[in-house]
Design goal:
Pfam families: RPAP1_C (PF08620), RPAP1_N (PF08621). The chain is mainly α. The protein contains twelve helices and two strands, in the order αααααββααααααα. The radius of gyration is 59 Å and the shape is elongated.
């Protein structure tokens, strides 16, 4: 196209566009020129408005709304001088000051008065002195004496050393008391002492084979035999019939097994007449030894305990306890006591 044709096309476009749209496009062109020098890669986000040529004879040119998203340019600086001024007025520079730049205020006279009084009472130390401070010590608290299990006051010393703030109950600690020494006052008061003129039948002791253990022999049997325990007369070996009756109802299967086995052997010896045949008196103190032992067996419900343990169904309870209970009842039958005195 020639220059004349280009100029003619521009005039036709200018005549067809709305004057407001034309003014906005011209302003945008001026902004792009000033902004292009700062950011050469800036992209105009507003798409260019395109219009189709419309004949002016039939209808008016359409209006195309375009939003201006560019920031409003700042107002131009006024570089003009006032009338009669030869130079432009200079702006006064602002200064910022901080409290650190100024001197600290003087404290009042009575601000540190309490500290001054306290400082006069504080002892000053000379850290450069050659005094040996390793010898300086504080008196330690008195330590409790070592415990001696053979001491008669062992329980009282044990409570004073480890549990001084708890109430003392000697009855609960009686089983921990040391064994009395031979021929001591506590030893002479033992219910199974050899020096006793008489012994109740309930105090008689038996070993695991059901044999009677006399008081003199009970003190000679070593503790390794397993016959010592923390019941009455812990210095004597063996079990009494009431103790075996209680163990037969124990919740511990091993204790029940020991009681069943010992009671079965005791009942066998009772039926065989090792301690009498039971034909003597059977009223109170006139009972002979055999019938007195049988009264203890009946009073402790020994036979009922054995029958209950033996009657447990197979696999329902402790198998060992059931076997020992059956064995004890069989020994009771073999001894023959049941045939003679069971109903009496």
């Amino acid at each position: 196209m020639s220059q004349d044709e280009i100029a003619e096309a521009q005039r036709e476009l200018l005549n067809e566009l709305d004057p407001s749209i034309l003014q906005m496009l011209l302003r945008r062109a001026n902004l792009d020129e000033t902004r292009g020098s700062k950011d050469p890669f800036a992209v105009d986000t507003v798409p260019p408005a395109t219009t189709e040529p419309v004949e002016t004879d039939h209808q008016e040119p359409p209006t195309i709304p375009v939003e201006d998203t560019s920031p409003i340019p700042p107002p131009p600086e006024n570089n003009t001088l006032k009338d009669g001024a030869t130079t432009a007025p200079t702006k006064q520079k602002k200064k910022v000051t901080f409290d650190a730049d100024t001197a600290a205020p003087e404290p009042s006279a009575d601000l540190f008065a309490p500290s001054a009084r306290l400082s006069s009472q504080i002892h000053t130390h000379d850290h450069n002195c050659t005094h040996d401070h390793s010898t300086t010590h504080f008196p330690p608290a008195p330590s409790a004496p070592d415990l001696d299990p053979s001491d008669p006051d062992f329980l009282a010393n044990l409570h004073a050393k480890y549990f001084p703030n708890l109430p003392a109950d000697p009855a609960k600690l009686a089983w921990m008391a040391p064994i009395p020494t031979a021929n001591s006052p506590a030893d002479l008061d033992s219910p199974y002492h050899p020096g006793q003129s008489s012994l109740p039948v309930s105090a008689l002791r038996f070993d695991f084979k059901g044999r009677l253990v006399p008081p003199s022999l009970a003190r000679q049997i070593p503790s390794s035999a397993g016959l010592h325990h923390h019941a009455e007369a812990p210095e004597a070996a063996g079990y009494t019939v009431p103790e075996l009756a209680r163990l037969a109802r124990s919740a511990v299967p091993a204790q029940r097994c020991v009681a069943y086995q010992t009671l079965g052997r005791l009942l066998f010896r009772l039926g065989k007449g090792e301690w009498g045949v039971g034909e003597g008196g059977r009223d109170g103190e006139e009972d002979d030894l055999a019938f007195s032992i049988w009264r203890l067996v009946k009073g402790g419900y020994v036979i009922e305990s054995l029958e209950e343990a033996a009657g447990v169904e197979e696999g329902a309870g402790h198998r060992g306890a059931r076997a020992y209970a059956i064995e004890a009842l069989w020994l009771f039958e073999k001894g023959g006591w049941k045939e003679k005195w069971m109903g009496r």
